[in-house]
Design brief:
CATH architecture of the largest domain: Up-down Bundle
Protein name: MFS transporter
Shape: globular
CATH topology of the largest domain: Growth Hormone, Chain: A
Pfam families: MFS_1_like
Membrane topology: Multi-pass membrane protein
Number of helices: 15
Domain Major facilitator superfamily (MFS) profile: 142-387
Number of domains: 2
CATH superfamily of the largest domain: MFS general substrate transporter like domains
InterPro entries: HcaT-like, MFS_assoc_dom, MFS_dom, MFS_trans_sf
Strand content: under 5%
């Protein structure tokens, strides 16, 4: 089997899974509102996702380590995704939706991380760029947001389960053809976590970026409802995500040309500034097309921030503890920040509207950027004194 052939199933897995992911991220808030839930209740349901992720990632990570396989765990999770999604989309009432949603997210939340982990390991084995593989996830996300947005606009958001099952089934089919890798890392131990907790620069960095990641996750959850408040429909929501994720894919694909030219923290701070500008511009919007035009900033904010922050975290932690440190980073970015962003964002958009929500998100980003700037200056001074 040639190098290209061996990577094709993996690229198609990332394409298919992220195509399902965009359906949930882009249209689930509209679906839940159609079910009769208000903004606060939608926030509770969306908060279940990152809560389940915090609980499930160590479990699936441990099983992957114990049985030395990523492919096997991926297959189990995708089968669980298909079965639990059918149950989840049949639920009525907040409590039933919350309980079914937890089980659904328990299976779905690890798939992205496991797919990225497999992509990174395969890229290292074949000596190819990780970005050329991971870009297919962004392409799948963008394609799905555009196509499914048009479909749901022509039909009804209650039918979102059918394109979800289509892409989920495609993910299962291609997953059977994946080339697995041996997982050599040991399971996470409490002593490893305690060693990282004592790493003050690492903990401070995670705390400061939370102000920015909370704003990012809140926007992910409620941009669809905000566009609807401004007069948009499912089609425009899909187009907005398409524009954003295409810009993200471009940033990932071209990272080798711009990344590492300056100190990693400079890129993190730059992304924080751009997040602040982006959210305040969104807060001032009075037309959904204004938001769509500004969605290209998604790549400049999330794309730059994610690459730079992950790289900086890798520098801060010992090599033997990198898997644990990365897990803590993911838990903050997609777990803790997701819970806070969903709960606070739901209450704000329900009581004050989307404009007020984005003004608060802009303030959060500005605070986080300021803290990171001070953190960077203090780190430089500490290094200078040590010389």
């Amino acid at each position: 089997m040639t190098e290209k052939q061996s990577l094709t199933p993996l690229k198609m897995l990332l394409f298919s899974f992220h195509a399902t992911n965009t359906i949930i991220l882009s249209f689930l808030p509209l679906y839940l509102k159609d079910k009769g839930l208000n903004g606060t209740e939608v926030g509770w349901v969306l908060a279940v996702g990152p809560l389940a992720a915090i609980a499930s990632q160590p479990v699936w990570g441990y099983l992957s380590d114990k049985y030395k396989t990523i492919k096997g765990v991926l297959l189990i999770c995708i089968i669980g995704l298909l079965i639990s999604s059918i149950v989840f989309f049949q639920m009525e009432g907040l409590l039933a939706i919350l309980l079914a949603g937890f089980v659904f997210y328990f299976f779905t939340s690890p798939i992205g991380g496991l797919g990225d982990s497999l992509a990174q390991r395969r890229a290292d084995e074949l000596r190819v760029s990780f970005g050329t593989i991971r870009t297919w996830g962004s392409v799948g996300f963008a394609t799905s947001s555009l196509v499914v947005g048009q479909i749901l606009s022509a039909t009804d958001v209650q039918y979102m389960i059918w394109p979800y099952l289509f892409f989920g089934t495609a993910a299962l089919i291609v997953a059977w053809r994946l080339t697995d890798v041996r997982v050599e890392s040991d399971p996470v131990h409490l002593k490893d976590i305690s060693a990282l907790i004592k790493n003050k620069p690492f903990i401070l960095f995670l705390f400061f970026i939370m102000f920015i990641t909370i704003s990012h996750r809140a926007s992910d959850s409620f941009i669809g409802l905000y566009l609807e408040q401004l007069g948009g429909n499912e089609s425009l929501v899909g187009i907005a995500w398409f524009v954003g994720v295409i810009s993200e894919a471009a940033v990932f694909a071209l990272a080798s040309r711009w990344f590492r030219k300056y100190h990693t923290l400079i890129f993190v701070i730059f992304a924080g500034v751009m997040y602040t500008v982006r959210w305040f511009l969104y807060a001032a919007a009075n037309d959904p097309f204004f938001i769509i035009m500004l969605q290209f900033l998604h790549g400049i904010t999330f794309g730059v921030f994610y690459l730079a922050a992950l790289d900086y975290v890798t520098r801060l932690i010992p090599k033997l503890l990198q898997s644990t440190g990365h897990l803590m980073f993911y838990s903050v970015f997609f777990g803790v920040s997701g819970i806070i962003g969903s709960l606070v964002g739901g209450a704000l958009i329900d009581s004050l509207g989307g404009g007020a929500l984005y003004a608060v998100l802009g303030t959060f980003s500005a605070a986080g950027t300021l803290f990171l700037t001070v953190y960077h200056v203090m780190s430089l001074r500490k290094k200078q004194r040590a010389v």
